[in-house]
Amino acid sequence: MFDNLSEKLQRVFKNLRGEGRLTAENMESALREIRVALLEADVNFRVVKQLIEAIKVKAMGEEVLTALSPSQQVVAIVRDEMIKSLGSHESKLRFANEPPSVMLIVGLQGSGKTTTTGKLARWLSKNGHRPLLVSVDVYRPAAREQLRIVARDINQPIYTGTPEETAPADLARSARKEAANSGRDVLLVDTAGRLHIDDQLMTELQQLREMLSPVEILFVADAMTGQDAVKSADEFHKRLGITGIILTKMDGDARGGAALSIRQVTGQPLKFVGVGEKSDALEVFYPDRVASRILGMGDVLSFIEKAEEAIDKRKAVEMQRKLIENDFTLEDFRDQIRQIRKLGPLESILGMMPNMGIMKELKNAKIDEKEITNVVAIIDSMTPKERANHMIINGSRRRRIAKGSGTSVQDVNQLLKQYSQAKKMMKSFSGGFLGKKLGKLKLPAF
Ligand SMILES: Nc1nc2c(ncn2[C@@H]2O[C@H](COP(=O)(O)OP(=O)(O)OP(=O)(O)O)[C@@H](O)[C@H]2O)c(=O)[nH]1
Ligand SMILES: [Mg+2]
Fold it and tell me: 50-71: per-residue pLDDT in tens?
C-alpha cells in the first residue's frame, strides 16, 4: 500500500538532501512536488491544501532554514502533519457499560462489510471479548449464508434466526436477546449494502439504530474507490451518524488518498484497516505508523506485533537456548521456516520493513514460495538421525533424500549449505549484541 506516494515523496526528500542548503526557493519547489504527489495519490484537494499550508508555515520557519540537516527536519514536519490529518492517535473501539455492546457494520455494496464483520469478531475474541454475529441482509439470498460460513471459519457463534424472522429489525432484536442470554458481550450486526446511498436503506439503518442504540456504527469503505469512499463516508455520517471508519482493501494498490482524507472530511476516526481477504487480515489503525509507511520508513512495529502473534513464544525461547548451546538441528531449521511462513506471504512482510519502499530491487527479486516448500519437503524426507546430525548425510543419502522429496541432489546440497551458513551466522549472533536483541524480540534469527 502507498507504494507510489511513498516513492514520490522519497524522491522529493532526496532532492532536498542534494541541495545541501535549504532556501525559500527550493523549499517552494519541494512543496509543489509534495502537493502534486498527494493529489495524484487521490487525496482530497481540501486536505492537500491544509496539509501543504501547515507544512509550509513550519518548514519555512527560520529554524529549519538554518538547521544542520534541514531535509530531515522537513521529513519530520511532513510526518507530523500527516499524523495530524490521520487522527493523531489510535481510536479504540467503544464498549457499552452494559453488555452486549451492539456494533452496526454499514457501507456500500461490496465494500467488505461481511468479510470485515468476521475479521472483527476474530479480533475481538483474540482481545478478550465474546462476540456474537448476526446478518440482517435479508435482500441478497446468499448474504446470510456467507456470514454463516465466515463465522464457522473463525469458530465464532452466529444468530441465524427462525423462519418467521424475515425483517432486519426482528433478526436484530432476537440476536441481541440471544447475546444477553448466552453471555456474549458484543453483538456485530452485518447489514445490507446498496450500490448507491438510497432513502430506503437509510431509513432501515436509522430504524436499526433507534432500536439497538449501537455503541459503534462502523462505516466500511473500499480504499480502492479513493475519493468516492470519502464522499460516501461523509454522506453516511450526515444521515446516520457514524462513529468510526474501517478502510478495506488497503492491500491492493490503493493510492492512499482515502486514508489521508477520510478523517479530515468526516471528522470521524479510522479504527481499522483491512489488508487482505483472510480473517486475520485486519490491523488496528495507528496514524503514526501509517504516516511512517507512507513516507517509506516502514512499519516495524506492525511487523513485530504480527510476528509475536504468529510465533509460538515457548518455541522461541527453546530456540534461543539451542542457539546459545549451538544445538540447532535441521529439524529446528524446518520449524523456523514454518514459523516464518505463518507470518504470511513474504512479500507482505517485506513491505513492512523500513526502506523497502525504496529498495525496489529487493521486492522485484521475487521470493520463491516454492523454494520454501522444497526446503520443508527435503527436511521431511530425512531420517531423524540425519536431521540431528547433518554431517552423516553422504552422497547416497543425498540421492535418497532428493528422490523422496521430489527434488534434485543439487537442491539438497544447496539446502545443506544454507543450513550450515545459517548455523554459523546464528552462532555469531547468539553470543553477541544481536543475539540479545533478537532474544528480546523473541524473533527467530532466520
Ligand atoms: N483484498 C482484499 N479484499 C477484501 C478485503 N475486504 C474484503 N475484501 C473482498 O471484497 C469482496 C466483497 O466483500 P464482502 O465482505 O462480501 O462485502 P460486503 O460489503 O459484505 O458486500 P455486500 O454484502 O454485497 O454489500 C470479497 O471478495 C472480499 O473477499 C480486504 O481488506 N482486502
Ligand atoms: Mg455482505
Answer: 989 988 888 777 666 665 566 6
Ligand 1 centroid to Cα of residue 277, in Å, is: 7
Nearest atom within ligand 1 for CA of residue 274:
31
Ligand nearest to the backbone CA of 106:
1
Ligand 2: distance of its center to the CA of 275 in Å?
A: 17
The pTM of this model reads 0.70
Amino acid identity for residue 58 in this structure: K
Burial 241-252 (b: 16+ CB within 10 A, else e): ebbbbbbbbbbe
Per the CB < 8 A criterion, the answer to whether 42 and 228 are in contact is no
Q: What is the full DSSP assignment across 246-300?
A: EEE-TTS---SHHHHHHHHHH---EEEEE-SSSTT-EEE--HHHHHHHHTT---H
Domains of the chain: 3-86 (1.20.120.140), 101-286 (3.40.50.300), 304-441 (1.10.260.30)
The number of beta carbons lying within 10 Å of the beta carbon of residue 24 is 8
Residue 114, ligand 1, Cβ within 6 A: yes
Residues 445 and 323 sit within 8 Å (Cβ to Cβ):
yes
